Amino acid sequence: MLNFNYQNPTRILFGKNQIKNINKHIPTGSKVLITYGGGSIKKNGILDAVKAALAGYDLSEFGGIEPNPSYETLMKCVKQIHDSKVDFILAVGGGSVIDGTKFIAAAVPYEADPSEILSTFGYKIKTALPFGTVLTLPATGSEMNCGSVITIKATHTKIPFSNPAVYPVFSVLDPETTYTLPPKQVSNGVIDTFVHIIEQYLTYPVNAKVQDRFAEGLLLTLIEEGPKALAEPENYDVKANLMWCATLGLNGLIGAGVPQDWATHMIGHEITALHGVDHAQTLAIVLPSLLKTQKESKKEKLLQYADRIWGITQGSDDEKIDQAIEKTEHFFHAMNIKTKLSDYGIAKESIPAIIEQLAAHGMVKLGEKKEITPDVSKQILEMSI
Ligand code: NZQ
Ligand code: ZN
Q1: How far is the CA of 275 from the centre of ligand 1 (A)?
Q2: Ligand located closest to 188 CA
Q3: pLDDT at 132
Q4: Which residues sit opposite 70 in a β-bridge?
Q5: CA 239 – CA 225 distance, rounded (Å)
Q6: Closest CA to 339 of 380, 298, 307
Q7: What is the Cα–Cα distance from 160 to 272, expressed in whole angstroms?
Q8: How many CB atoms lie within 10 A of CB 313?
Q9: Cα dist. 228→185, 191, 243, 278 in Å?
Q10: Is the shortest distance between the CB of 183 and ligand 1 below 6 Å?
Q11: Mutation to probe ligand 1, out of 279, 337, 363 (largest number of atoms < 8 A from CB)
Q12: What CA–CA distance (Å, rounded) separates 60 from 44?
């Protein structure tokens, strides 16, 4: 196992009606800004529940944070906060609202131009406004990590940043808030979580048995419960298990002390930035081809994955690995997520521009062994047509 230094300060309030308890974790008398997205929380009553829980606080709102939150929109909120003092922010929504709120929280007290947060991947952030979250879409793990991904619309750039200053103070995980999710977002959430786990598990062995078995438990839960969530959108237990899976998939626990990949995510970000394909859909396009190109490099863990996740024990090593990749792709299809660029109207001619953007963003040595050069990324995308 590799050395690690792990601390996660986010309090989790899990279960039914936990929104009622948020006032116990926001200092009395605070000026609270509620941030949200395109309005789903108004239609499903979550905004009303939040406001009821915060009776007595001085409340204001900032709505309109879009999926793949943009720097341009978020800077409007930063200005709103500079014009009217705010002590605490409450993000109510999916990963985009939470990621956007992390940027806002860091940008308000930032001494230099906030665009520097993105150009330096967040490492110069010294402090941020405190914020909590009410999660309505289990997928990103943003509710219990200190990462965020922001899009600069002007340049079609999607940039991740992270800093310990932007861990949420608390996050409410009430599975009932997910009942109104459109099926596509349920699928996206399951696939995003699945790929987060894979990026931290399917690398090379370092004898980290605890992390491996945690990761395998989460993957098996997703495979078991994911399709049920599509069939029974209001099954509380199914939604509860998926919600906790998503959080544990990217709160740092399974990634501590093991090598990490993240090439699928970095290639996927460029596809979203240029073509607007949903984040999870890009991962489903990239991962199967990436695994095919990395068969040798990831051999030992691919065999472990084939055996422990898919029960594949017959055949040569090569056959077992091929079957495991095929099963993975079938699982994505069972979740109604398509796995080819052409399924999303993207042709072979679009690949060079994606590769140029990767190079422009310094994504030229990706993967746990830094072996995924632009040439390999090109091969991966060409296999995904
Ligand atoms: O905007 P509203 O109206 O709320 O609607 C949203 C949005 O249209 C809707 N939705 C959310 N909860 C709902 C709901 N609709 C009905 N009922 C509910 N309960 O779902 C749509 C998608 O929301 P979004 O927040 O964009 O989805 P997701 O949570 O998948 O977040 C995706 C973003 O997170 C980033 C991605 O790159 C992408 O920008 N990621 C962040 C990570 C992190 N911070 O650690 C890691 C991830 O790998 C990922 O990159
Ligand atoms: Zn993701």
Answers
A1: 17
A2: 1
A3: 98
A4: 151
A5: 8
A6: 380
A7: 13
A8: 8
A9: 14, 14, 13, 22
A10: no
A11: 279
A12: 19
Distance CA 124, CA 110 (A): 9
Q: Which two tokens stand for residue 192?
A: 């995003």
Look at strands 157-162 and 147-152 and give their pairing.
Answer: antiparallel
Interval between CA 268 and ligand 2 midpoint (Å): 9
Does any ligand 1 atom lie closer than 6 A to the CB of residue 144? no
* Ligand 1: nearest atom to the Cα of 40: 3
How far, in Å, is the centroid of ligand 1 from the Cα of 314? 40
What is the structure's pLDDT at 101? 99
Residue closest to 308 by CA, chosen among 381, 204, 201: 201
Per-residue pLDDT of the chain (385 residues; tens, 9 = 90+): 999 999 999 999 999 999 999 999 999 999 999 999 999 999 999 999 999 999 999 999 999 999 999 999 999 999 999 999 899 999 999 999 999 999 999 999 999 999 999 999 999 999 999 999 999 999 999 999 999 999 999 999 999 999 999 999 999 999 999 999 999 999 999 999 999 999 999 999 999 999 999 999 999 999 999 999 999 999 999 999 999 999 999 999 999 999 999 999 999 999 999 999 999 999 999 999 999 999 999 999 999 999 999 999 999 999 999 999 999 999 999 999 999 999 999 999 999 999 999 999 999 999 999 999 999 999 999 999 9
User: What are the tokens at 63?
Assistant: 């709505």
Question: What is the identity of the amino acid at 201?
Answer: Y
| 145, two tokens | 């990590």
Domains and CATH numbers, the chain: 11-178 (3.40.50.1970), 183-383 (1.20.1090.10)
- SS3 for 158? strand
Q: Is 142 in the pocket of ligand 1 (CB under 6 A)?
A: yes
What is the atom index within ligand 1 of the atom nearest the CA of 269?
37
The letter for the amino acid at 372 is I
Task: Tell whether ligand 1 has an atom less than 6 A from the beta carbon of residue 67.
Answer: yes
Provide the pLDDT for residue 207: 98
Question: What CA–CA distance (Å, rounded) separates 383 from 385?
Answer: 6
- CB of 37 shorter than 6 A to ligand 1: yes
- Please say whether the beta carbons of 88 and 132 come within 8 A: yes
